[in-house]
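User: Predict the structure for this protein chain, please.
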Amino acid sequence: MTPALELDCRGLPCPRPVIELARHLGDVAVGETLAVVADDPAARHDVPAWCRMRSQRYDGEDAAADGVPRYLVTRLS
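Assistant: Here is the predicted structure, written as structure tokens:
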């Protein structure tokens, strides 16, 4: 999947990846996907939880080219 926007959150501690996700969600159109690349282990739980709380769609996890986890979120509103 090719996201409309990819956020590089490598090296940012919890809760910064989710803060960046919230800050930049409006940078993509409704229906587009935003990716959060984060090496903080808490992001694996925080991103899906944030999506549930904010009524956005969590599309799962894959990996960036360097193997760092990448979390996919589709903007619904």
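The domain at 5-74 is CATH 3.30.110.40 (Translation Initiation Factor IF3).
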